[in-house]
């Protein structure tokens, strides 16, 4: 039996989750608010918890404050936290540890969850590799912030639609500027440190948004999967 695809306001749920991930990545408050409206508070908390370790990568002494901001849905505070992309040297170390992090997530997950429980932190399974990396690097550069992306919501930016979404798979789109593959994290870091976040945000918001089509049919999106 063919699995039913949930379509919300013209996009798959995976597209809205991708928006949440990538909006946090660039510090876009309106993007997070629109994603929450589509997928709900529970899924948003899960996605943003992953983002804490995949993107924000807070200093050890800021982890509890960051997790509180996720719980309280304080999107402005979360978006103002500088991600590892904008902090010299951290993204390089993050990516160099990929093989060990992936191995740990696959073979040491019980131990990793135990470490999280000790700190009163819930870690989704897909964030275990980043959780291991955060534990290993244990960043100490506290107090690093960035400007918030105050762009209004004008539609789903095409940068959100990659292979992590049903639409991206159907269209054969593997990665975009904001994709979360390790090599894309490194590429984004190099761009941010050379040109700043506004440069990245201008690219994202200047490209034609995807239309929200409430009458879109499941078969139209996924006939090629």
Radius of gyration: 17 Å
Continuous helix count: 13
Output the helix-strand order: EEHHHHHHHHHHHHH
Domain module count:
1
- Per the principal axes of the C-alpha atoms, what is the gross shape? globular
Mean pLDDT: 92
Number of strands: 2
User: DSSP strand (E) fraction?
Assistant: under 5%
**Amino- and carboxy-terminal Cα gap:** 15 Å
Largest sheet: 2 strands, antiparallel
Helices and strands in order:
Blueprint: E1 7-8, E2 11-12, H1 13-26, H2 29-39, H3 41-56, H4 63-71, H5 75-80, H6 90-96, H7 98-107, H8 109-118, H9 128-137, H10 166-171, H11 182-195, H12 197-206, H13 218-222
Antiparallel strand pairs: 1-2
In short:
It is built from 13 helices and 2 strands.
Written account of the structure:
The protein is an all-alpha fold and 225 residues long. It has one domain. 57% of the residues lie in helices and 2% in strands. It has 13 helices and 2 strands, in the order E-E-H-H-H-H-H-H-H-H-H-H-H-H-H. The chain has a two-stranded antiparallel ribbon. The radius of gyration is 17 Å and the shape is globular. The chain starts with 6 loop residues before the first strand and ends with a helix.
Short key terms for the protein model shown above:
mainly alpha; 2 strands; 225 residues; disordered C terminus
